Amino acid sequence: MRLTAGIHIADTARVVTRSEAYDPPEYVSWQADASVLREWDQTLDASRSRRRIVDCLTPREHLDLFAGLLRFRFMDTFLKRWVKQGVISKAWLGTGEEAVTVGSVHALRRGRSGDVVGPMIRNAGAYREMGMPMAAVFRSYLGTGDQLCKGRDLHIGDLEYGLVPPISMVAALVPVFAGVALAFKQRHEERVALTWVGDGSTRTGDFHEGMSLAASLALPLVVVVQNNQVALGTRVEVHTRAPLDKLHVAYGVKGYTCDGNHVLDTYAATAQAATDCRKGRGPVLVTATTFRMGGHATHDEAEARDMLPAALFQYWGRRDPVGTYEAWLERSDLRLEEGAGAWVQERDALPQERRERNRFLLAEVARAAQEEVERAASEALESRGTAMPDGSDVDQGVYARACD
Ligand SMILES: Cc1ncc(C[n+]2csc(CCOP(=O)(O)OP(=O)(O)O)c2C)c(N)n1
Ligand SMILES: [Mg+2]
Fold first, then answer.
1. Is 228's C-beta closer than 6 angstroms to any atom of ligand 1?
2. Ligand that comes closest to the CA of residue 203
3. C-alpha 31 – ligand 2 centre gap (Å)
4. d(Cα 341, Cα 319) in Å, to the nearest integer?
5. Of ligand 1's atoms, which has the minimum distance to the CA of residue 120?
6. Which CATH number fits domain 25-386: 3.40.50.300, 3.40.50.720, 3.40.50.970, 3.40.50.2300?
7. pLDDT one digit per residue (tens) for the chain, 404 residues
8. Chain-centre distance for alpha carbon 328
9. Quick one: which atom of ligand 1 is closest to the CA of 97?
10. Does ligand 1 lie within 6 Å of residue 204's CB atom?
11. For ligand 1, atom 25, which residue shows the shortest CA distance?
12. Strand ranges of the sheet holding 221-227, from the earlier edge strand across to the other edge
């Protein structure tokens, strides 16, 4: 099965093309907007310390960030396709919000004994970026028996990769992650615990209790408030009167704000927060402003369009985190070819002209991301044919078990 959205190198406007069937309408004929690109640079220049963090990114790290955004976007496209085909009944997507997750995760120490993250429904891109194979993520969606939860639960996680599964009750991960951070502190480990909460989820008791505890004990906890301006069908200005970017004041902790559609800004803000935590200055709240370009899940996209002003979709549609980063990289003076070893074998064959060369390299990265996602989806579908749980061990490996 091939994605309809794909790579189209001949197109002078974009490396990654869009599809009417799966992309929000604002993305379908997306073009880079000069004023948005200027805004990107202004955001980078607004803070010297963040600019320094971004300037330290290597060409390889830039391409990795770009690949991460694409993997997340392509994964969502597949999930949406599976919903349309009746393979799964529903999917929760992160379309338009990818930079919040990808920027944050890439700013952490990943790998064995590294930092630990707790993704929520908009952060499914974190699984692959933390190292979990994409096929394992898809298998969890399909409930196959050949993955960690053995088909019992859609809440995906694997401590092997520093991934704690989400908890359905929103914001419940905040106190859980205060606990993770407490363990790091007690063991004198220089590790950071990070979780995300939506704007609506900041209104819960769990958020408050978790933040209060983490603040009192000065724990190495980063909570990224992902303000996509809506909770289910309730707009942010209806569900809260609190300024979300000032919440940290209430807890007496550090707070940063960032542009949630600007992957370099989310990266730099999280890097700052993680450094604070490693120096014992945690916890930190990072507020990322973004916008949900679809519904709460695949079932209510039309309702979201009815409920939210079209101008919001247009405004945020022009700030597509994938397209904007692609355009920014394409125009940049970075020597991307120096970081392209994982994607391009024949360095001699690269176009000479810088912008053309950048486009070529970005297209190769996009091609690899697309192939990885397609391969993973095929593998997971294969498991669906061969490895579904048969129910005989349904009472095994669960938290509680009835007495004999
Ligand atoms: C404690 C709790 N209350 C209600 C719900 C039902 N619910 C699921 S998602 C959601 C909205 C969450 O909105 P937000 O935190 O802004 O996250 P977003 O979906 O926008 O990413 C609600 C109310 C829940 N899962 N848990
Ligand atoms: Mg929200």
1. yes
2. 1
3. 26
4. 29
5. 21
6. 3.40.50.970
7. 445 444 444 444 567 778 899 999 999 999 999 999 999 999 999 999 999 999 999 999 999 999 999 999 999 999 999 999 999 999 999 999 999 999 999 999 999 899 999 999 999 999 999 999 999 999 999 999 998 888 888 899 999 999 999 999 999 999 999 999 999 999 999 999 999 999 999 999 999 999 999 999 999 999 999 999 999 999 999 999 999 999 999 999 999 999 999 999 999 999 999 999 999 999 999 999 999 999 999 999 999 999 999 999 999 999 999 999 999 999 999 999 999 999 998 888 899 999 999 999 999 999 999 999 999 999 999 999 999 998 888 877 776 655 55
8. 19
9. 21
10. yes
11. 169
12. 116-118, 193-198, 221-227, 284-289, 254-259
Cβ atoms within 10 Å, residue 345 = 9
Protein residue closest via CA to atom 12 of ligand 1: 231
**pTM summary value:** 0.95
| Burial annotation 356-394 (CB, 10 A radius, 16+ → b, else e) | ebbbbbbbbbbbbbbebbbebbebbbebbeebeeeeeee
Distance, CA 199 to ligand 1 centroid (Å)? 9
Instruction: State whether the beta carbon of 234 lies less than 6 angstroms from ligand 1.
Output: no
